[in-house]
Design brief:
alpha/beta; 12-stranded mixed beta sheet; 14 strands; about 15% strand
Length: about 525
């Protein structure tokens, strides 16, 4: 590393201070080398001390333009769905795209002056900034009415770990609403809000969307800015809409999509104009006769999406019946095989702990060009304390232990190897999508499971084995970055009690930045068929 300046430091680093630091790293330095490096590190320390306050460059909201009132923790949190209530809107919106619609933010999104729990009591954090997409919905005329509960550290697919309490399925109390955007799924399904944000790194929009019987879109990676949202792993971070119907999903996406100048997940150019228009194409399709809405559209039925160990036969039957209905809308439906789809969940599992442990749990986002949430990062440190670890849920604690293990035993090789292999998987999807406009499969392999007892003392193994294979069809598209939409298509019996009926959904996957194709295919099916009667 080059030296920019070298001068007298107000408080030079002594050799005695530096020696234990290098010794901890397994290094031995001679006296002359230790003397030289003490001088060089003194210069680095002086440079750090001279840094100006970064608050002057943070995108802090204008609270006169975006006022917020009535911030409180509700006594009735709607069976776990609300984390915090607040009312906020823009006094001079720039459009009426979402005029008067109510929105819930996921509780991993920064909203100035309102606590952000990320579903855990690990740290107490009240942000000073607003997430870009929170500002965008207010600019479009929406009213933010609170923050929806999310699962602990956003690392659970079952809604039993949020610090605000279990989130219950809107169709059956005692069953999972899905995770990690659990509160968002329930609030939209019950009509408590018109629209809600979800964030998705392995299925956290689509799992609760399927579980709660709503529409959920994981957009193309980088289409929607992630600025001001707690990351899990920047390579798989997605934020997107959770809505009652497909047209609302298109409205919501149009209001928030596009570059914001901060987020390096987004392409530096080309994301503009018609590429950010979703409502007009959906409306044009819905104006057609049902039998011709999808005329010429080729739909590939992903064979491997129906070959998940432990897959519920009722789900398979429901999804295959729903897919068959696309033919009556004019679509060409044919099978397609992508063998690498079966390997993708294993690669996701191996790639995540090293980067996820560092970025998600420790707040270390080094190497990214983005807005850094430094005020939260300083609450954690280079490793978790015992109290912080004990505040984690089963999924988060499992990832942290995995992070420590991989860091100690394997280093960077495992993540690098997994990421290289995942490129081949993404390429395989791209090849299939040259032949087909979209791919379809079940969103989830089985219906929402029953929640454990709230005060259960069973360990992480018991909890995590309840959802084995849950993300088999969802997590591959986080790594590949393709848009993936979950559309409810019927009810299936709960595995624990056949008299309980729970939603199931088809997942529609499109070409990168062709999110509109997913919306159009979903909108056509939704217009013709009432999923609640199936």
């Amino acid at each position: 590393m080059s030296v920019v300046q070298l001068g007298a430091s107000e408080r030079p680093v002594t050799e005695d201070e530096l020696q234990p630091v290098v010794a901890k790293a397994g290094l031995t330095l001679s006296k002359p080398l230790l003397r030289d490096y003490s001088t060089l590190i003194s210069a680095l320390d002086a440079a750090i001390a001279s840094l100006p306050d970064d608050k002057s460059v943070l995108p802090r909201p204008d609270l006169t333009k975006y006022p917020r009132t009535d911030t409180h923790i509700p006594e009735d949190n709607e069976l776990g769905a609300w984390a915090t209530k607040v009312t906020a809107k823009c006094t001079s919106p720039t459009s009426d795209l979402l005029k008067g619609l109510t929105v819930a933010l996921k509780d991993n999104m920064a909203f100035a002056g309102v606590r952000c729990t990320n579903g855990t009591s690990m740290v107490d954090w009240v942000p000073e900034i607003d997430a870009t997409i929170a500002t965008r919905v207010m600019d479009a005329g929406a009213i933010i009415i609170g923050k929806a509960a999310c699962e602990n550290s956003c690392l659970e697919g079952m809604s039993g770990t949020a610090m605000t309490g279990q989130v219950h399925n809107p169709y059956a109390k005692g069953y999972s609403a899905g995770g990690s955007s659990s509160g968002s799924g329930r609030l939209v399904a019950t009509g408590s809000v018109d629209l809600a944000f979800g964030c998705d790194q392995g299925g956290s929009i689509r799992i609760p969307a399927s579980s709660c019987g709503i529409v959920g879109l994981k957009p193309t990676w980088g289409l929607v800015p992630y600025t001001g949202i707690l990351s899990l792993d920047a390579t798989i971070d997605h934020a997107g809409p959770m809505t009652k119907n497909v047209r609302d999903c298109a409205l919501f996406l149009e209001a928030v999509a596009g570059p914001d100048g901060w987020d390096d997940r987004q392409p530096p150019f080309g994301l503009e104009g018609d590429k950010l228009k979703f409502v007009t194409p959906v409306d044009a399709l819905l104006a057609k006769e049902s039998s011709s809405m999808l005329e010429g559209v080729k739909i590939g039925v992903l064979s491997e999406g129906f070959e998940i160990p432990g897959q519920d036969p009722n789900v398979v039957e429901s999804i295959k019946s729903a897919i068959e209905k696309f033919k009556s809308l004019g679509a060409i439906v044919a099978p397609v095989s992508i063998p690498l789809h079966k390997e993708a969940p294993l690669l996701w599992t191996c790639a995540l702990p090293l980067s996820g442990g560092r970025q998600s749990l420790l707040g270390d986002m080094d190497g990214r060009k983005q807005l850094y949430l430094t005020d939260r990062a300083e609450l954690v440190g280079p490793k978790l304390t015992q109290a912080q670890f004990d505040a984690l849920g089963p999924g988060a604690s499992n990832m942290y232990i995995g992070y420590l293990w991989i860091q100690e035993k394997y280093g960077a090789k495992v993540q690098g190897k997994s990421m290289n292999l995942l490129k081949a998987t993404s390429d395989a999807y791209d090849r299939a999508l040259k032949e087909f406009d979209v791919l379809v499969m079940p969103t989830l392999p089985y219906p929402p499971p029953r929640l454990p007892e709230p005060e259960s003392n069973k360990g992480p193994l018991d909890f995590l084995t309840r959802t084995i294979g849950l993300v088999a069809n969802t997590c591959p598209f986080n790594n590949s970055g393709h848009p993936a939409l979950s559309l409810p298509v019927g009810f299936v019996p709960a595995r624990e009690d056949p008299s309980v009926k729970l939603p199931t959904a088809v997942q529609i996957v499109g070409r990168k930045y062709a999110d509109v194709d997913c919306l159009k295919v979903a909108a056509a099916w939704e217009k013709k068929f009432d999923w609640k009667t199936l």
